[in-house]
Amino acid sequence: GRTDPEAEAPRLCRAEALAIDKELLEEFRFGQQQLIEIWGHACAMAVTKVFPRRSLPRKQPTLLVVCGCEQNGAVGLACARHLRIFEYEPTIFYPKRSSNPLFRDFTTQCEKMDIPFLSYLPAEVSKLISDAYNLVIDALLGVEATPGELPEPFGTILATLKQIRIPLVSLDVPSGWDVETGTSDGISPDVLVSLAAPKQCATRFVGKHHLLAGRFLPYDMQKKFELNFPEYPGTDDVVSL
């Protein structure tokens, strides 16, 4: 019979995940913006697969994208832009904007597409957020986040995300989780989209859908890091694990 792709997919520790990024940038000459764009598009594709527009409970296909100030947040911005192109209605919450000019471009692109930015996250979360949006995308903290005490405003935002009752989609690493050990204290997303390859913490993921966005990785690299991926269907750039 068919082997279980979840069992086959390798799990990266933090050092391996950072090494893959470094190699893509230095050896294979990918640009950082290029990688963010590829991942943002793939994450948007993953959302459309799990939540087709017509299946959403609300009349307007609204969703909230919560972005941090590092690379994962920029992936969230690119993801929001692609979802807008796919005729969803994203709103972005980006409380601590990055000073990195590479990331600033993604903000400008979203602004030019008239994607609204929230100035604050409502405290009456369960009511206001659940009433306004079909789902929330967590692009707050990625592999680069160090576990432990979170600087504000991230601690407060995380506390808000924990109370959300509508579906939650996390990009790469659910915010508040340790990349390697996972966590019992962080949020519990319904959907996880792993970038490049699943991280070790994904073994603790108990949500309904785990998708992988790593089809673009060069073959030599897949071999070197022993990334024994399941087959991607057709020309899709995401696969369900």
Features of the shown structure:
single chain, 241 residues, alpha/beta, Rossmann fold, 8-stranded mixed β-sheet, disordered N terminus, YJEFN_prot_NAXE-like, NAD(P)HX epimerase activity, YjeF_N_dom
Concise description?
With 241 residues, the protein is α/β, with parallel strands linked by helices. It has 8 helices and 8 strands, in the order αααβαβαβαβαβββαβ.
Question: What do these coordinates show?
Answer:
- The longest helix has 19 residues.
- The two termini are 16 Å apart.
- Helix 3 crosses helix 4 and helix 4 packs parallel to helix 5.
- The chain has eight helices and eight strands, in the order αααβαβαβαβαβββαβ.
- The chain is of the alpha/beta class.
- The N terminus is likely disordered.
- Strands 3-2-1-4-5-6-7-8 form an eight-stranded mixed sheet, with helices on both faces.
Gyration radius, in Å: 17 Å
Report the principal-axis shape: globular
Structural class estimated from helices and strands? alpha/beta
Biggest sheet strand order reads 3-2-1-4-5-6-7-8
Helix % is 25-40%
Q: What's the helix-strand series?
A: HHHEHEHEHEHEEEHE
The percent range for strand residues is: 5-15%
Instruction: Give the count of helical stretches.
Output: 8
| CATH fold-level topology | Rossmann fold
- Terminal residue distance: 16 Å
Query: What's the number of domains?
Result: 1
The major beta sheet can be summarized as: 8 strands, mixed
Average pLDDT level: 89
CATH superfamily: YjeF N-terminal domain
Instruction: Assign the CATH class.
Output: Alpha Beta
